[in-house]
Amino acid sequence: MDDKKLMETMLYAVKSTCDLYLHGAIESPTGNVHGAFSNALDEALEMQNQIYSKMSEKGWYTTTPAPQAQIDQTANKFCCQ
Questions:
Q1: Helix (H) or strand (E) holding 81
Q2: Straight-line distance from the first to the last Cα atom of the chain, in angstroms, rounded to the nearest whole number
Q3: How far is the CA of 69 from the CAs of 15, 63, 75, in angstroms?
Q4: Is the confidence at residue 80, as pLDDT, over 80?
Q5: Are the C-beta atoms of 52 and 61 separated by less than 8 Å?
Q6: Average pLDDT for residues 20-30, to the nearest whole number?
């Protein structure tokens, strides 16, 4: 397995973990449990950002900026006027 594929696998796993922690926090019955899930989510999000940044730096994860007209259209769709 090459480095790019390994990083893609790690990113996918961390994103899935973030999803689980988010749902754990949302469904927590007590403040202590909510705090534990929230802290774990924060750590996982930081890890996700580090993996994404390294992949982006190497050109393995590229994004295309959305045109401003598309951003405005989407914002207007969800904005209360």
A1: none
A2: 52
A3: 29, 17, 10
A4: no
A5: yes
A6: 96
Q: How far apart are CA 28 and CA 45, in angstroms?
A: 19
Number of domains comprising the chain: 1
Q: What is the mean pLDDT of residues 3-8?
A: 96
Q: Which two tokens stand for residue 60?
A: 């393995």
15-42 mean pLDDT: 97
Task: Please answer whether residues 57 and 41 qualify as being in contact, where contact means their C-beta atoms are separated by less than 8 angstroms.
Answer: no
> Is 34 within 8 Å of 21 (Cβ atoms)?
no
Concatenated DSSP letters of 8-33:
HHHHHHHHHHHHHHHHHHHT-SSHHH
Q: pLDDT, tens digit, for every residue of 61-76?
A: 888 889 999 998 988 8
| Domain residue limits at 63 | 3-78
